[in-house]
Amino acid sequence: MISAAIAAVIESRWSGGQFVISAQVGSSRESGEQEILDRVAELAVGFAADAADYDERAEIPVAELTALHDAQVDRAVLPRRLGGLGLSYQSFGTVVRILAKADPSTATIWVMHAGAGVALAELTADSAGTFFAEEFLAGKRFANALSEPGSGNRFLQPQQVAEPVAGGWSLTGAKRFVSGSEIADYLLVNALVSGAPTFFGVKPDESVSIIPIWDTLGLRATRSQLLAFDNTVLRAEYRGRAPGPGDFAVIPAGLPAISLGIADAALAALVAHARSRMILGNPLADQQWVQHEVADVQIRLAAAHALYDQGLREADNANPAFFSTLSRAKYLANKVAVDVAQLGVRVGGASGYLRGSPIQRHLRDAEAGQLMAYSTEVLAGEIGREVLGADAPPSP
Q: What is the pTM of this model?
């Protein structure tokens, strides 16, 4: 558990046509976190320059992921009790926002890689946890293989059954949207064992195959393929417990930041275009409708950042409300990112609709964020029931 004494203050402010996200630190331990943030910010400049090319080729940005590992960002996110540096939630959120603004595909693959690696080290702590932690620190690649074609967006509730075999259980089925699966050394997989969702580490072998269907509109460089499992053995020694309080919640804490980073990039592109585009001798930014529309999305984006920061502070202070707050932050961030990106297309006009414009890429990436589990529709149902005190619908 990250100490509640950590007092890093994340500041999101609007400056020079873009959001500036910084961390103010006040102790030696927090200064170590600042070094990580500085390294990520430096790397992000190059990531942003290459993002369009990776998107165009739908190619996994292996060089960027390697650079993050070499910069000790993987070590930073691994909790101290597992041999890492124990990054605070607030600094983790800043890392993801910086990466997502530069290249959301890189940010998404890294979040999924960190989520799977940290989870396997934690969930198998009584068996293979040390092994998975060492492999994670050594630079091996991890991927989440949790979502099923028939699970209805609820990736923690598998429907596929693993049957007992010698040495463990056998799984036949499929997992979809496995970001970075083509370079993964290990997978985090779940299945029903004796009727209960159960988690395993899996080293892909000939029983795991990639079904090359990835031809998406947004987040193209994640190459989130569909995986087929054909009597794949889920080894008993790689079986883990269920996620619980005290685990570092990489995925719930990372997903809102991906959409926030996309929205930041979209707004920055919109502002740059409006300032430089001349209409009848005056910049487009002088038009009142543009000012009004930009004011609306900027204020709502600032609110989304603030809600997300609240969730991160709650998580650092072990407040169980942080899961609910982060769910709301993801919902709002997904919605705002799409709104900002759509406005960018309107302000950009025909030039913003060209393939060479970053504006159209931001729109495609923003739309993808709404589909990532839990989708905005699922989140709206859960949040609405919580507010109304309504009963959850019966399980199918």
A: 0.91
